[in-house]
Amino acid sequence: MAIVRYFVHSVILCCLVAGPAIGEQAIYDVRDFGAEGDGKTLNTHSIQATIDKCAAGGGGTVYLPPGKWLSGTIYLDSHVTLLLDAGSTLLGSRDPNHYAHPRPSKGEGQQTRDFSYWSLIAGSDLKRVTIRGGGTIDGQGSAFGWKGGRRPKGIYLENCRDVLVEGVRMRSAGSWMQHYRNCDRVAIRGIAVFNHVAYNNDGLNIDSCRDVCIDGCMVDSDDDAVVLKSLSLSPCENVTIANCIISSHCNAIKMGTESGGGFQNITISNCTICSPRYSQVTYGRQRGLAGLALEIVDGGTLERIAISNIVIKGVSVPIFMRLGNRARQYDSSKPKPGVGTFRNVALDNIIATDTSSIGCSITGLPGYPVEDISLTNIRLGFEGGGTREDAWREVPEKAASYPESTMFGVLPAYGFYCRHVKGLKLTNVQLQTAAPDQRHALLCEDAEDVTIDALDAGWSPGAASTIRLVDVRDVQVRGCRPKVGTDLFLYLAGSRTERVVLMGNDLSRVGRIAELAADVPSKALVQFGNYLADR
Question: Which of 202, 246, 334, 378 sees the fewest Cβ atoms within 10 Å?
Fold first, then answer.
């Protein structure tokens, strides 16, 4: 018989979160449908038959006991839990012909349609679906070594509600390990991902979803690790990411690049980011690209983002924020998108060490500033080594370029390069370099309403200046105590520079407080309340 056993109600409440809320729940063992866990027998039809029987009976649990269960694409159904017991491995077939056979799918108010997707586990228009247990999903993605073209993902779920993925280990997909698209109420807890065998080996992709909780996960991937995307005009919104350990040869935590709808109401907290330790790079860099990458380039809106309590070690660039204009279309019936919106972002308690010499950047476009950004209690350590030539180089706009933390090359500031920004607040920001660096610590260009409070920046012999401001308006620099030996603290340039206030700083150990370029209006800088006793 297909239905071989039941869990009592107390066990259901503890373990089978996606099943019926009350009553006993049926357990369907794949062995009862002819599956063989020898790692050689193709079990696609047997596992699918188990899922179909479970769904036809009103839902329950499809059980994979210890063993190696080889399969092509299997399609989940509503009210079904796929339970991988400890010691069980769902193996993806190495034969591309075993993927994406069509299955009927029907959402609320929709016609039945054939749904097929290149993924080991797939589902569309489902309710209350769960993947959980102590077992492993192994896509055997090394069999799909080509770049471009169709390569199977590990998990693909679209238009689903009440999704739980919990406890399982995932490894070696043909491309992305997981892709959740246009789903509502998604919980991903306690999973461990290692994805390093093929191109585009992302770890976890949330695409145009709502009400998402990601907690206690370990994600180590070649391509971007934990990624929010909007491959549509619907934003990712109401998302929390917490208590995760994340590693990537590309970007560890990222919003973008695909950003048609944007990202709204996002919190990220209590996460550790580090360079990959157990893999060699395919994309990106061996050490990884960005720790935190926030990007809007396809016309969407990024707003109400709070990121706190993050530690980062060894990546190339700890923080990267970009408003660009790649303007990719996600709906051919609508006009090409204009420049999007990037605003209301708060970063607090970020510590990064052993990062490269590139520096961090926060950049908008002319006439389209990044708005209302606060950086509080930030401590960043860089390799250093920048030259005075680097300090004065022009940075191209690259409005339509693919956004990446390395896109501008070595920046003229070793700490933060900020251009086309409005409403920027830096409070208790500490910037240091391991080797001497002659660049500015902080450079703001075409910036308005800027507060620099208690900046603590290292100084190297021959450095250009601690702070450089170009074409800025309404700036306050206060509470700073430049290091002993600092030659020039503040350099102003640009004919549009006005209302720069230097107040309440300890400037007693500075060689020169400020220097104004010839094009700066004479009344642009006001100084008062600064400590100058030793001068």
Answer: 334
